[in-house]
Design brief:
alpha/beta; Spore Coat Polysaccharide Biosynthesis Protein SpsA, Chain A; UDP N-Acetylglucosamine Acyltransferase, domain 1; 8-stranded parallel sheet; 7-stranded mixed sheet; elongated; binds guanosine-5'-diphosphate-alpha-D-mannose; binds magnesium ion
Length: 351
């Protein structure tokens, strides 16, 4: 079975992290989220993938190429202007002549894809949507289900208080190729606002597969930080990151001074140096990075090539690649822009 990734969004709610990087390339535990999801699919025997891109396609193409390095076969579609989720799926039509999977590219989940495919077949559905239960469904597509596991309604982002259910579209679908015939070509179409309601209005079968496990859309800065805390605390067991059953992951060529204190759970990438009396707690430190003497890094996500020195204290802070933070200050609940040359600017974002 082939998979289609919807990866063309601008990631506006993740600025400044997405100013230079498309959302699917934002690292989750030091690897692009898209790569983590792809490797999960590979474990389920799915290696043929199409990535539908629009915003900064080269960043995705240059990293994954034809996929061979990861044991995958990857094809690309590039939209000149965003076609919306439905338009993007339609544009990929020539790649699919059999049942296929569609995934939003900003989801971390432990959904059982094999079970979902079996469920879809057993329901003889035209489309099956994975759903998950949330407290506030207003930021998502809300789905009502009948007693037999079929959808009766789909409402995208209802007004607060007007949702008919707490089960929301988890952004993972199984499609029969026939669905594509009814989507207009070269038009902006939303699968959530246009296609799904139409499928139901015409009396077609839409299966609803309930995911009881972990699920998060990382598309806001707050959620992006949350997924890391969930992985570090083992609420989310992200397969392949090394922290599923451990509390510390150390890359290659890591130099930690004997006086460093490490608390909680930490992920430290390759070629990292941590200086005397530094403190690291529940944090991720990317490759080729330096944490200088006496610095404190608490509940932070440092990307690759980050240098922190001069008694800096960071708490609940995200630091993108190429940043150098060297003023003796405390930063909390901050996202650095990482694009200001030598010294990072502090973006006025409080998480
Ligand atoms: N190729 C392409 N073209 N991809 C797009 C486009 C487009 O024009 N617009 C969005 N995408 C991709 C995004 O990159 C993302 O991976 C996915 O489609 C969903 O877009 P988001 O912008 O993240 O949507 P959302 O989070 O507000 O809502 C969607 O996801 C929720 C679950 O997280 C909807 O599908 C909701 O119904 C759902 O509940
Ligand atoms: Mg999203």
């Amino acid at each position: 079975m082939k998979a289609l990734f919807l990866a063309g969004g601008k990631g506006l709610r993740m600025q400044p992290l997405t100013d230079t990087l498309p959302k699917p390339m934002v690292p989750v535990m030091n690897k692009p989220l898209l790569e983590r999801t792809m490797m999960n699919l590979k474990k389920n025997g799915i290696t043929d993938m199409v990535i539908s891109t629009c915003y900064r396609p080269d960043s995705i193409k240059n990293y994954f190429g034809n996929g061979k390095r990861l044991g995958l076969d990857i094809q690309y579609i590039v939209e000149d202007t965003p076609l919306g989720t439905g338009g993007a799926i339609k544009k990929a039509e020539s790649h699919f002549d059999d049942t296929f999977i569609v995934l939003n590219s900003d989801i971390v989940s432990d959904i059982d894809i094999k079970k979902m495919i079996d469920f879809h077949k057993s329901k003889k559905a035209l489309v099956t949507i994975a759903v998950t239960e949330v407290e506030d469904p207003s930021a998502y597509g809300v789905i009502e289900t009948d007693a037999n596991g079929y959808a009766v309604s789909f409402v995208e982002k209802p007004l607060p208080g007007q949702a008919s259910s707490n089960y929301i579209n988890a952004g993972i679908y199984i499609f029969e190729p026939e669905v594509l015939k009814d989507i207009a070509a070269d038009c902006v179409v939303s699968v959530e606002r246009d296609t799904f309601p139409k499928i139901l209005a015409e009396g077609n079968k839409m299966g609803v597969f309930k995911n009881e496990g972990y699920w998060i859309d990382i598309g806001t800065l707050e959620k992006y930080r949350q997924v890391h805390l969930d992985i570090l605390s083992k609420k989310c067991r992200l397969v392949g990151c090394g922290l599923e059953n451990e509390y510390m992951v150390l890359g290659q060529n890591v130099k930690i001074h004997p006086t460093v204190r490490i608390f909680g759970s930490v992920y430290i990438g390759d070629n990292v140096e941590i200086g005397a009396k530094a403190v690291i707690c529940n944090s991720v430190i990317g490759n080729d990075s330096l944490v200088g003497p006496e610095c404190r890094i608490v509940e932070c996500i440092l990307w690759n090539d980050v240098k922190v020195s001069g008694n800096v204290r960071l708490k609940k802070t995200i630091v993108p690649s190429g940043s150098l933070i060297c003023t003796s200050m405390n930063y909390s609940d901050t996202v650095f822009t990482g694009d200001a040359g030598n010294l990072c600017l502090q973006k006025d974002i409080v998480l």
